[in-house]
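For consistency, the fold was encoded as tokens, as this record shows:
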Amino acid sequence: MKNQKENLRLLISLGLAGVMVAAILWLISKVSSTIITTSSNPTQTSSSLTNKPSLMNLGTRILVKVQTSPEKTDGVKAFAEKDFSTAVKKFTDSLKNNPNDPETLIYLNNNAKIARDNSEAIKVAIVAPINFDPSLAEEILRGVAQAQNEVNTQGGINGKKLQIVIASADNREDSARLDNELVQDKSLVAAVGVRRKAEIYKEKGLVLVLPVELPNQAENPAKLDNNTVNSQSNSSTSNYLFHVNPLYNNLVDTHSRYIARQARNVAICGDVRSSRDNSASSSNQILVEQYTQAIKNYGSNVISTPCNLADKNFDPKAFVDKAIETENASGFLLMPSIRNIYFATKVAQEVKGRKPLFASETMYSATTLQNGKDLEGMVLPVYWHRNANKDNPFAKNAFQLWNAQVNQRTAGAYDALQAIIAGLKEDGTREGLQRVLSNPNFSTSGATGMIQFSPSGERQGEAMLVKIERCESCSSGTGYDFALLNKK
């Protein structure tokens, strides 16, 4: 009897031990499946830095909310459920109804077709400021989508399809996490986008090509944070940052020279927002300072009457009247953010016919032409214009694809990806791509002409000036267009 009780206790102990071992093994397997990602699966992105959802998206979420349709919603849902044939059909249907949606074109060419066909792919990230500047984000996405569409239609890069992951931070706090997530994802070979603190791309060895330029990228590096783009080493062996357009001071200098010839006393309207860390307002403030100094260097003056387009109490009429009557303003320079073009137009309405109008390159936009009657005669600087090189097929192809004209930000994004594509055709690794782009013999053609980088990653080139003029039956559909000026 005693032996039976001892045997029973032994069996119970062994049973409990077995249950504990099984529980431990189950827990280990669950943790492992959370940590280990299947990078070979083209539908997955992950963040190994935190438990937060990944900031990179291949097609399971709609990021550009203004470009939403039932078909697109169904496509995203089907893609998330790995029903790729349905996703392809739904994205295709969405584009038939709205061909001007770059996010859907990327999702279609991107992962839906790649996953459906089980194609081998090479992955590049596009950093788009969707939550901060949706208009700019769409302009950049169109250039990337067009380049991706062309290369995949032609068979891809050395037989591999080009896959685009869209990276977008939901808020400024997530911006640093986004950079870390990108550089640590070894499946990515390059990125396109504007990052104010880009040192990490050099440190971690991920090529970043900038599709547009910011004013502070032309400033003296000693005045800026040590992590900004300009503080990169000039060594071709360590540089991972490449500018597809000439730096911003090229635009400012060309434009200021023209302005100084047309106006003796210039009134400048900036667009400076308050911010906890001032990063949001610094770019426009630096631009105001750059223009002020350049205009003075060419012999004209900048009046002292303040004009801030971001001030909710700003009165356009009071400002214009005071500038003209009190300080003898003979020209007005508007430099809004893309989202504040409306307020710049209000200033222009008060100036109309009284004094010459000028604007920064941010107003090189279809939104501007919608108010062409108030802005006729305004002159602004650009890196690209569709008539600058009529033999270049980019503008024509873009119009056929998007059913609309595009601007230089779309052209810059297109060229940024074209440079990456050309580099990857020679070497498909991160390190190899950096070596190819840094080689002084590297060149490729794009929307803005021949693309070639200096050892420090900069691109030389000239700025152009355009003027808003009335037109008949022009493609903008507004009755106004940007006409290329022959002389600076």
User: Anything to note?
Assistant: The longest helix spans residues 2-35. The chain has two domains: 56-246+395-451, 249-382+464-484.
